[in-house]
Design a protein that fits this description.
seven-stranded mixed β-sheet, alpha/beta, 7 strands, single chain
């Protein structure tokens, strides 16, 4: 592909960025002719933003750093990162290493038939309770938004940037994954899913699967369904 902006939402991910940014430099040239990295530092207290800037200079990686003075949440971080993308295609994944950056190559061929290509996890390297919550949430999303996806929250996705610019994203929670599929569908686009491996977290602490974020995502699901997609931005 010609150009790829890779968005990484990050809250206290300095340990993971030490190995992840060099890995990105190794693998992305095999996927895109040009690339840049957009890290959204979501109120980190461990120096995530400063470390990202230092590593990017050392590695000579094009970096955009978006800073949140306080933690605004996963969806807010992803949304601000997507809005900062400026190359022909935009991808995002988490900074915890559970999804392999190189596996974006599994998604790229399907961009010939779709505007959005998302992964679905072939296995789950998470505690059992998170898999149960994910399954229930997928069914809720399917019923509410009528998007037939099997693993809506898998954070390995590529979208055409011109499609991304057709709509506004409203979600501040993990519901942003579902909203992306729904907005593409509502704006006449197409999406497909591809199975991808899932890996154990290498370092740091996971923050998903807590009650308050789950309740926030459920509330946003209802709001988005009844708000509607809004006008096209062609």
């Amino acid at each position: 592909m010609p150009g790829l902006s890779l968005v990484l939402p990050a809250h206290n991910e300095s340990e993971n960025l030490r190995w992840l940014l060099p890995h990105i430099k190794d693998v992305l040239p095999g996927i895109a002719a040009r690339f840049n990295v957009i890290i959204v530092d979501d109120g980190s207290t461990d120096g995530t933003g400063a470390l990202a800037e230092s590593l990017a200079r050392e590695l000579r990686i094009g970096l955009k750093l978006v800073r949140h003075d306080r933690k605004l949440g996963y969806g807010a971080a992803v949304g601000d990162g997507l809005r900062a993308a400026d190359l022909e295609f935009t991808a995002f994944t988490d900074a915890d290493g559970q999804l392999e950056i190189a596996d974006l190559a599994l998604l790229v061929p399907h961009l010939n038939e779709a505007d959005l290509v998302g992964g679905w996890r072939l296995t789950r390297e998470d505690p059992a309770f998170r898999s149960v919550i994910s399954g229930v949430f997928n069914q809720l999303v399917l019923l509410t938004l009528r998007i037939p996806v099997k693993d809506v929250n898998c954070a390995l996705k590529i979208i055409r940037t011109d499609m991304l610019r057709r709509f506004e994203l409203h979600s501040k929670s993990a519901l942003i994954n579902a909203e992306l599929y729904w907005q593409v569908q509502e704006h006449g686009g197409r999406y497909v899913q591809v199975g991808v491996p899932h890996h154990p977290r290498r370092m740091g602490r996971r923050s998903g699967g807590r009650l308050i974020p789950i309740l926030r995502a459920t509330k946003e699901l209802a709001e988005i369904r009844f708000r509607g997609s809004g006008p096209r931005r062609d």
